[in-house]
């Protein structure tokens, strides 16, 4: 009888230990909302969880790149918008100055306005965002057009920034000052054109200024062309961001299915385990009080 009682007692103690460990697991699950705290909780879920977490990290990196590209393109588009408006103003100014009914003083005043436009164009060419020059290629710490009196003195380079916005998806996000302002790809040197017009009107030579009207329209079209090109890029970046967000969300749902607990179920399991443990403790307490006299 003694051996049987001892064996029973040990069996109950083992059950209590298992119940206590199980209850601690349920307590952790209920408190954290996570059912997969260790690999032993569900070995079959470990690989899918690791894969989902890896995919989410990858998606977040792409989203970070998308945000950076979007900010860069927005700043660039704002500058292009200002430059396009400036070219329109320059054309209007030349037309106004060359109407044939103005005196020298009035023409000189238009010349001063052209000087302001030329200075503004150089300022746009040297635009900085967070301390980096937008139109200097890879040489973002170098002022691309340091001499406001020399429209050909470009100190940037011709490199383009290529960003990966998704698996197998890369886009060029920048324009160089050489191509946009200097016409290095066969276009028009906008800065040189504005400098010439400043000299023409300063010398009261409205007829020579009027001969450059077509060039002003060409320059404006040049800006519009680059703006349209980068606008298409911006749309691609935005669409990639939406797709990557949807993909990351789907991975989060998948991860949640393997890792996250049903809170109601977790608390229900915890309550049942607490009841089972209390029952086991009660039985063990009663058995521990038994003696040989109880069997006489």
From TrEMBL:
What does the UniProt entry say about where the protein is found? Bacterial flagellum
rRNA-binding as a keyword of this entry, yes or no, is: no
Q: Give the matching PANTHER family.
A: FLAGELLAR HOOK-ASSOCIATED PROTEIN 3, FLAGELLIN
Organism expressing this protein natively: Syntrophotalea carbinolica (strain DSM 2380 / NBRC 103641 / GraBd1)
Which segments constitute the Flagellin N-terminal domain? 10-140
Q: Which GO terms describe its cellular component?
A: bacterial-type flagellum hook
This chain's protein is named: Flagellar hook-filament junction protein FlgL
Q: Give GO MF terms, alphabetically.
A: structural molecule activity
Per its UniProt record, what Pfam families does this chain match?
Answer: Flagellin_C, Flagellin_N
């Amino acid at each position: 009888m003694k051996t049987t009682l001892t064996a029973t007692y040990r069996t109950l103690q083992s059950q209590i230990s298992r119940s206590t460990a199980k209850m601690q697991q349920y307590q952790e699950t209920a408190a954290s909302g996570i059912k997969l705290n260790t690999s032993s909780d569900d070995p079959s879920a470990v690989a899918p969880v690791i894969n989902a977490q890896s995919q989410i990290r990858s998606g977040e990196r792409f989203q970070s790149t998308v945000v950076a590209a979007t900010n860069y393109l927005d700043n660039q588009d704002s500058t292009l918008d200002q430059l396009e408006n400036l070219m329109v103003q320059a054309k209007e100014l030349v037309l106004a100055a060359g109407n044939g009914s103005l005196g020298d003083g009035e023409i000189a005043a238009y010349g001063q306005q052209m000087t302001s436009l030329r200075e503004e164009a150089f300022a746009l060419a040297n635009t900085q965002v967070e301390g980096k020059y937008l139109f200097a290629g890879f040489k973002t710490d170098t002022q691309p057009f340091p001499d406001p009196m020399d429209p050909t003195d470009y100190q940037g380079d011709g490199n383009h920034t290529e960003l990966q916005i998704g698996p197998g998806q890369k886009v060029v996000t920048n324009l160089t000052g050489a191509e946009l302002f200097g016409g290095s790809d066969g276009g028009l040197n906008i800065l040189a054109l504005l400098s010439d017009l400043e000299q023409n009107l300063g010398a009261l030579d409205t007829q020579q200024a009027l001969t450059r009207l077509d060039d002003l329209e060409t320059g404006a079209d040049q800006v519009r062309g680059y703006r349209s090109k980068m606008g298409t890029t911006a749309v691609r970046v935005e669409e990639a961001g939406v797709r990557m967000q949807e993909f990351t969300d789907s991975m989060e749902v998948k991860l949640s299915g393997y890792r996250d607990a049903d809170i109601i179920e977790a608390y229900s399991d915890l309550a049942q385990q607490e009841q089972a443990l209390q029952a086991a403790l009660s039985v063990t307490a009663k058995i521990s009080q038994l003696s040989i006299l109880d069997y006489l």
